[in-house]
Structure formats: C-alpha cells, structure tokens
Design brief:
Number of helices: 3
Largest sheet: 3 strands, mixed
Structural class: alpha+beta
Order of helices and strands: EEEHEHHEEE
Distance between the termini: 34 Å
Length: about 160
Amino acid sequence: MNGFQAGAKVIKKAYPDEPVGVFTRRDGKVHVVEYSEMPDDLNTAVDESGNLKFDAANVVLHYYSLAFLKKCCDLRGEVQSELAYHVARKQIPSVSDDGVATETPQENNGVKLEAFIFDVYAFCDSVGFLNGTRGIDFAPVKNKEGTGKDSPDTVSISHLPHFAD
C-alpha cells in the first residue's frame, strides 16, 4: 500500500545476546547484522531510556515487491555484482582416507561463505517495517527439548486459531 520495495515484520529482542540478527542502517541503507557478527558493546548498547539501541530482531518475515525481486535476479545488475558474503565459522564433519565419515568436531574447523535473502535490503530505495508480537509472530525453536530456552517445550501455540478438520 505504501509503495515500499521491501519490508519486514520485526520483533523486539528479548535480551541483549538473543541469537537473532537485527535490522540497522549503515550509510543510509538498511542492513541486517547477524548475531554472530554483532560486537558485544553494540549488543548491549542502550539509549537514554535504557532500551536496547539495536532491538529490531530479524525473524525472517520479509516482503519484497516483484519489481525489486526482478532487479535482484538480474545477473548483470548491481545486486548480483555487489552482494557481500558473511563469514561463518562452522564445525564441518570430515571424511577419513578410507571414506568413512568421522564425527563432527567439537571446535570450529572450517569457514563457510554465506549470502542471505535479507542482504538485498541494502539495495532497496524504500523499506517499511511492521512491529510484531513475540509469541504470536515469533516463537523460536533453536534448541533441543529440555534446554529451557527457545525449544519445543517452551513454545506455546495456545494463541493460534483452531480450525476444523
């Protein structure tokens, strides 16, 4: 309705080191900074009211106009030629000389270069945001059951509408 090229629903971070990326602006352009790339001092930075400065969590509820997506897919266009990669240090399983897979290492042993759909926000001329509600729009499941945080046993679906079979 507002003619934005892209948009996103965002949720306020629950706590400073919550493992979610956050929407920010750099040089007037919208970016998402991944939690693994966010310096601790910025993660905990607060404004004069004591609220987190960087609290617009990217919960991957994105909206893109078709015209903008076409621009992103142009193989000779600026998006494809300028899109940057994120460095992710990972625990990558290795294979022994006899071809039998070994266990995944306990420590990071490799680097992956990743690109994300949200990286294209930096190429938008207009982006709109909608504030969502935690528990309705976002209930993360990132950990196994029994960990007590962001796991299947901490997510409630009682707020969801029930539909007849």
